[in-house]
Amino acid sequence: RPHHMSKVGQAFASQKSVLLLSCGIGLIAAVGRPLAYYLFPIEELALAYSTARLFAGSALEPAASRLALISVTSQLPLGILTIANLRASQQRKNALITMGKMVPASGTGNEGA
């Protein structure tokens, strides 16, 4: 292997790496489409898109592109932020419960008198 190549270039220079990469790509190509159809409602989305195209006509393409852009740039980050806030809140609650178990009940011993 030439020494002037980057680490990535050196990794792809070996026959074993190329073989593993091509097998991985072949596996994704073979399993990817059926797996995607199994995991996501692709047929239903295609049917909904074709139905919407009947009503909207040629205006559907720019509207769908705009909707996808808005979803990716605003709704996805807001969802991630919300999940992060929920996790932080749950960690605080768990910490309070843990602290409550660690602190012994305070008392002077005169509670019964």
What does this structure look like?
The protein is an all-alpha fold. It contains 4 helices and no strands. The chain has helices spanning 7-13, 15-39, 42-56, 60-102.
Tag the structure with descriptive keywords.
single chain; 4 helices; 80% helix
Describe, in short, the structure shown:
By secondary structure, the chain is mainly α.
Q: Helices and strands in order, then pairings?
A:
Blueprint: H1 7-13, H2 15-39, H3 42-56, H4 60-102
The value of Rg in angstroms is: 28 Å
Determine the strand fraction and express it as a percent band.
Answer: under 5%
Total of DSSP H or I helical runs spanning 4+ residues? 4
Instruction: Give the CA-CA distance, first to last residue.
Output: 86 Å
Structural class: mainly alpha
Main β-sheet description: none
Count of beta strands: 0
Q: Uncertain regions: pLDDT < 50 for 5+ in a row?
A: none
SSE succession = HHHH
The best one-word shape is: flat
Mean pLDDT: 78
Residue share in helix: over 70%
